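Q: What would this complex look like in 3D?
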Amino acid sequence: MQERPELKLSGALDLAPALESHKVKVPEHCGHYIDGALRLGKPETYFSNLNPSTGMPLGTVAAADEEEVDQAVKAARAAFPGWSGLSGLERGKYLFRIARRMQERERDLAVVETIDNGKPIRETRDIDVPLAAGHFFYYAGWADKLEYASGGKPVRPLGVAGQIVPWNFPILMLAWKLAPALATGNTCVIKPAETTPLSAMLLAEILDEVGLPKGVVNIVNGPGTTGAAIVNHPDIDKISFTGSTPVGRMIMKSIAGSGKKATMELGGKSANIVFADAALDQAVEGVVTGIFMNQGHVCCAGSRLLVEESIKDEFLARLKRRILTLKIGDPLDKNTDIGAINSPKQFATVQRYIKLGVEEGGTLWQGAACDAPDEGFWVLPTLLTDVHPSDTVVREEIFGPVLSVLTFRTPDEAVQKANNSEYGLAAGVWSEKTSKLFSVAHRLNAGVIWVNGYNMFDPASPFGGMRHSGFGREGGVAGLWPYMEVVR
Amino acid sequence: MSRLRIDKTLKLYVNGKFIRSESGRVLAVPTGEGRVVNVAMGSKKDLRNAVLAARKAQGGWCGKTAYNRGQILYRLAEMLDGRADALPTTKADAEAAVDRLVHYAGWADKITQVLSTLNPVSQTYVNYSRVRALGVVVAAPDPKDGLLGMVEAIGAATVMGNGLILLTDAAQGELAAALTEALHTSDFPSGVVNVFFGDQAELLGHASRHDDVDALYLAGAAPAAVVKGLEEENALVLRRVLKVASAAKPADPLQLQVLSEVQTVWMSAYESAGGGSAY
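A: Here is my prediction, written as structure tokens for the whole assembly.
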């Protein structure tokens, strides 16, 4: 391997701060949106919401109790006949309106999302919000064509959908869940995550602005107990959940025997496989995107790097050099690559795993182009080498910017190691040899395979996992199926 | 003096072999003609062996060409039709079962065309979603659906490329045994379809606690408490449970897709495509 001088970039890449200057009014209180009206919620349930990049309070959030969830479900049930009875074209027109209005308010949404979640403005501005609008635009056009998505059979909606979204892609997950459910004629009760309620409040404004019939979408805020009230409500027909595998199991157990249908988009420990014949610099980019996008708070994060043994040293050297150019800091700065960890709780989880990785024999390496700010919750991009397939950090989802590095010698071994996981959400494969790419990609037990790429999303592309990563798809034609059934 | 009828021993059909249960359990079922059939009652260990066999056979089965799988399903229709008059069921049931197999034989090289998609993404990738087999399915057809119910489960599971363990009710032993004989003379590779007799509820319980089963297929109206118990067990491993009301109509494409996985592949479309990274 050719020796390269060590890059000492700390200080060398000091860019003048380029703070996002768009002024936006951050909601001081997040209540509920039920039956077309904003409600403050019950004062005794209020809890505070933090800005993860400063640790300072952003405002208060109400937690919906069973009574309020019941009101939301009743509103959705009352709205169901009218909404499902609309012609597909008319329903679709509402979705088109939502998409358009989201596009017009893109910057509002991006700024609020970054303040609330801690992810870089570059991501919310270029990925989360445009994709969220894109999902409404995509599914809007399906509303009057549903029989073409079911092999030509007439279909009907399931009824009232209870939807629970996570904190890592707040507005995007709202769109992933609402757009297909609404296009197929269902009405919704949706719960944002307790640490990221802000963008849902903007969405409520948008739904109001476009004149969506009241009760078609109801938003209830709150923690897990609010989610449980949705899951256990007897008049819900469908549960769609994105979150951790343990919570997914609990939900499935709760709805056992109830006849409720479910979509589970759960955790992952996805492999990113780099063959020696890959375009290495591009693979480095893909590995960086795979694990450091959104601080690794991505269910499909490429958290296990499988690199062909013969290029391990060279590849890791290139990867480290690249990591040392990543700017960590103020998420509202347009130059920022790595934002803040979303909550003190998640920060503690990531730290616990890093410590465990070292205790189990791993070698720790952390780096970035600059130091992390003093306030807020930050984790530098982290590599764990000298780890083994049985190590905790290789088996369990960390949900942070922590990459475990493993090696392999043959394509068979790469496939075997990649599939050696209870999860099956995603995988990446890097090579310039087409036959190898197809054969490896098709043998991987995962729902999404990126070939010479990673962490790409598109409204037309179905997303979802196998095994303990869940079932059901979001996006594309397959994303319609969990919300409708053939009339038999 | 009347001729003494011979009794028949009904054996489980596992990995292409007719076997007694390792448990030694046998249920004597009188047929009402002074004759008894002795039904081997499948056990937990038998089920474990069958899952192993199905898992092993499934890779080869879904690796066959779709055209070939269609021909094998059609061959099973031929074998069943050839003995339709002797089947211990109604003529209508036997005919419907044969026709159902013909239906599925025709699906084998088409269902993936209906369910797979080429997705127009906004990046320089060829993005396709293909349906692929789930793995091993354990199915409990509704005894009320007769032979048609058994054949519907076989067709739906195998046409999607899965291995199958069919749990039939002991009371239908003779009918299920006749089906195994047709299966054995069809060209189904050993282990792809395995047939059990026994207590469906007991065997479903065992299947629910087995970690290498990918889906449960329940037909008919099982008691709510039974479904609840099964779904609670299966929730622990996020195993999917497909509930089918009846076998009167064949599974529609959306039901068939539940017996498969959608795998989406982003295949880089241009030489040295970028990683999509904005970093």
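A: To summarize the key features: The radius of gyration of chain B is 21 Å. Chain B has a mean pLDDT of 93.
Q: Very helpful, thank you.
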